[in-house]
Amino acid sequence: MADAVIDIVGMDDLPQIVDLYNKVYRPAKPLDSFRRRFLGRYNTLQLVAKLDDQPVGFFLGFELNPETFYAWHYGILPDAQRLGIGSQLLEAAQSWAESHGYESIRLECHNSHRPMLHMAVDLGYDVVGLRWDQDRGDNLIIFEKNLSI
Questions:
Q1: Confidence band (pLDDT; 50, 70, 90) for 102?
Q2: Is the distance from CB of 60 to CB of 34 less than 8 angstroms?
Q3: 109: β partners
Q4: Residue range 11-67, pLDDT digits in tens
Q5: What 3-state class would DSSP assign to 128?
Q6: Which pTM does this prediction carry?
Q7: Measured between alpha carbons, how far is 140 from 129 in angstroms, rounded to an integer?
Q8: What is the DSSP letter of 103?
Q9: Domains and CATH numbers, the chain
Q10: Residue 27 and residue 136: Cα distance in Å, rounded?
Q11: DSSP-assigned letters across all residues of 29-75
């Protein structure tokens, strides 16, 4: 397992996160789409994971409601996957959310992303729902973890 350095970063670092996102996911998204999504959001969190001082992963989240923090986007560069960095990012986000008074953290994962599904279960998340993502033509599994246990 890699020992990544997880940093909380600010909005000035959003272009770096969007670059990471576009190296992990398709179709690519422009920076403005991320900025628009963050408009009016409370308690936004941006994390960057680094190995040997190089960014290899990211996490973006925000308050869904006063009790629940939402893991909006997260990803690891292909060459750094399966090293435990995703778990480190989610654990850092969970810790941050708990320290900010949230009772739970929620994430969604496409049914086709099996490693992410397994990671969520391994980290103690429960399946709480399912929704159809018509943009990608795939089911999204909705996971939630109680932080107060």
A1: very high
A2: yes
A3: 141
A4: 999 999 999 999 999 889 999 999 999 998 999 999 999 999 999 999 999 999 999
A5: strand
A6: 0.93
A7: 8
A8: S
A9: 5-109 (3.40.630.30)
A10: 10
A11: --HHHHHHHHTT-SS-EEEEEEETTEEEEEEEEEEEETTEEEEEEEE
